[in-house]
TrEMBL record:
Pfam families: Aminotran_1_2 (PF00155), GntR (PF00392). The keyword GTP-binding does not apply. It comes from the Bacteria. In the C-terminal section; belongs to the class-I pyridoxal-phosphate-dependent aminotransferase family. SUPFAM superfamilies: PLP-dependent transferases, Winged helix' DNA-binding domain. This is DNA-binding transcriptional regulator, MocR family, contains an aminotransferase domain. One of its GO terms (molecular function) is DNA-binding transcription factor activity. Keywords: Aminotransferase, DNA-binding, Pyridoxal phosphate, Transcription, Transcription regulation, Transferase. The keyword Chaperone does not apply. Residues 6-74 form the HTH gntR-type domain.
């Protein structure tokens, strides 16, 4: 039976909430300290902290400086409130994001969404600051252009040309990473109650954004060669969606690429049903340039292309971009200005300097070489464990696999978390958060770590 997937911290918070509602814990009662609760129940301190954070956010308990946590008058949200509290419905997505943003040296993060830091260190961000300052010190104390730093957009024009996508600088809007780009597109095209299509499984952070916006989300099943065209055709007729968010290259989490034949068919359907295809290509620098892209076939007529440098340079720079029709780009730049004023010209200038250096191409070549070796080794590691792969890949940051005898990846993730191993369970990548899944997303860079096998043996 399908059931709502939730983190261990959320489970602890639910148990304590029931004790408060049943009167076992009363208003004014002091809870055990985080250390006491963790030691007494066999949990990690971070797990207990997460549970107390949830209870505090729900008004069930409150921290008092120097004294600890105390039960308050607040109660659990009523059933009708649970249905309308969008953040509450996205709690599993928020949990995974929290885990990925925390630095826990003692944990092995097989659910990590980025390449290892050691793979990116050769960029040497520290050496570019002086060059950035010399090229425009005065501009670093002001807001930038609504479109973003022009020289970087000119670089991106050449980058897209390498994918055979023609985009003039006025068709490119710089953003705070690919995630802000998705926010801008959602704000511009949708209103609460509208319907959008997404890959299923797909990018869980996007799902959280859609839920928060009050937009209805419907999943298109992902096959080994891209979206299921028959299902897509039926959904277009049934829901008349405005947008279809998809990843055609290095799909997260399945590591699949959309075939050229399917890309053609998607565009034919988009034309027939007045659909805009939003192509997220955040992993572009980790894949060969010749891999087919939907925007290459369409030339940004019915596609919006989103890119990022978080995976190839640094997530800390927060530089992404949108490429689309020029009139739409101007509108999206206005939305960006109204919601964020501008993006960071300092970060954009830093990235422009990096791209101007000849070694960026060498860096991405080295990055792809490392990824090919890690992918091959990761496949072997999973095969030794008897895992089933959705589709083996020659070069991908992720592998989508199920371990033998594990039908519920959320339960597996809970148990592995207690062994200091973080997994990314399949339910998080489904538009239906309560959908039980045996699949997990594995970062290939960490699959050979002996702590993984050791933790499995302990279960």
């Amino acid at each position: 039976m399908a059931r709502k997937a939730q983190s261990l911290a959320a489970t602890i918070a639910d148990n304590l909430s029931r004790q408060i509602e049943d009167g076992v814990l009363r208003e004014g009662d002091k809870l055990p300290s985080i250390r006491e609760y963790a030691n007494g129940n066999g949990y990690s301190k971070n797990t207990v902290i997460g549970a107390f954070d949830i209870l505090t956010a729900n008004g069930m308990i409150e921290p008092r400086r120097g004294a600890g946590f105390f039960v308050t008058r607040g109660g659990r949200p009523k059933p009708d409130m649970v249905e309308t509290t969008t953040l509450d419905r996205a709690i599993d997505i928020v949990w995974l994001m929290r885990e990925q943003l925390q630095s826990k040296p003692e944990f092995l993060n097989l659910g990590e969404g980025f390449p290892p830091i050691r793979w990116l260190e050769e960029i040497r961000l520290d050496q570019f600051h002086q060059r950035v300052v010399r090229t425009g010190l005065a501009s670093l104390f002001r807001y930038g252009s609504r479109f973003g730093y022009l020289p970087l957009r000119q670089h991106l024009q050449h980058k897209l040309a390498a994918y055979e996508i023609e985009a003039a600088p006025q068709q490119i809007v710089l953003t705070h990473g690919a995630n802000q780009a998705m926010d801008l597109v959602l704000r511009y095209f949708t209103r609460p109650g509208d319907t959008v299509l997404v890959d299923d499984p797909g990018y869980y952070v996007l799902f959280g954004k859609i839920k928060l916006s009050g937009v209805k989300m419907v999943g298109v099943p992902r096959r080994a060669d891209g979206p299921d065209i028959d299902v897509l055709t039926g959904l277009l007729k049934q829901h008349r969606p405005k947008l279809f968010f998809t990843q055609s290259v290095g799909h997260n989490p399945t590591a699949t690429d959309t075939s050229a034949a399917k890309a053609h068919r998607i565009l034919q359907l988009a034309e027939a049903h007045n659909l805009i295809v939003v192509e997220d290509d955040a992993l572009a620098d980790l894949k060969p340039r010749q891999t087919p892209r939907i925007a290459t076939l369409d030339q940004l007529r019915r596609t919006i292309y989103i890119g990022s440098f978080s995976k190839s340079v640094s997530a800390a720079l927060r530089v992404g971009f949108i490429a689309c029709d020029a009139a739409l780009a101007s509108d999206l730049a206005d939305v960006k200005m109204l919601t964020h004023v501008s993006s960071s010209e300092y970060c954009e200038r830093t990235l422009e300097v990096i791209l101007s250096e000849g070694h960026f191409l060498r860096h991405t070549t080295h990055l792809q070489d490392k990824l090919r070796r890690a992918t091959a080794n990761g496949i072997k590691a999973l095969e030794r464990l008897g895992a089933t792969l959705f589709r083996p890949s020659e070069q991908s940051l992720y592998l989508w696999a199920r371990l033998p005898g594990q039908d519920d990846s959320v339960e597996l993730a809970r148990r592995m978390f207690e062994q200091s191993v973080i997994l990314a369970p399949g339910a998080v990548f489904s538009p239906q958060g309560d959908k039980c899944s045996p699949w997990c997303r594995f970062n290939v860079a960490y699959l050979e770590d002996p702590r993984f096998v050791k933790a499995l043996q302990k279960l």
